[in-house]
Specification:
The protein has 216 residues and is mainly α. The chain has 9 helices and no strands.
Length: 216
Amino acid sequence: MTDVPRAAGADSGLRRAPVQRRSTERLERILDACAGLLDEGGYERLSTRAVAARAGVPIGSVYRFFSDKRALTDALAHRNLDEFLDRTAARLARPGTDPDWRTAVDILVDEYTAMKRTAPGFALVDFGVPGETNHDLADRLPALLGERLPVDAADPRLRLALVLAVETADAALQLAFRTDPSGDPGVIAETKTLIRAYLATVLDPPPIVLDPPPTG
């Protein structure tokens, strides 16, 4: 999902979690500054000193939370994933939203594309390391979808299906934004169709075939 270099097994990137409200607000300013600088100059031009200056904090405050700029982008990616899931959950909870899982697929794709277009830094970093974060997202989807899933959330077939769906959607949506900076609407629409069709093989029960009535 990103060309930013990563360390194998990178976690949230934080050296320590903030405890007080003031520290939490400072951390958010640092991550906001990181996102803005990524949009302006890309990963190669990003530096902890520039982030500190943009955030209006001492350089020591940046190093209190992060060891280097790679850790900064790891933390930004984790924040992006949390925000994506929060936005999707809010959409799913709206009164009148169709409870079918297919609607949830459409909403997931819509929220991803919306963040790709508008969230600072998301175009470069989104959720972080391909593969690693795709599995993280797949693991969090059953709790997000809840009763929309018509199968047991512990079924290993579901987990595999969600991993494959996330990986496939990732590749297709990267194509959508590679061909059009705003996201090719045709590719986005086909991505929804593709994911719904694949997941139906796991989430839709097979039709009940009744024995024909006896003849004669």
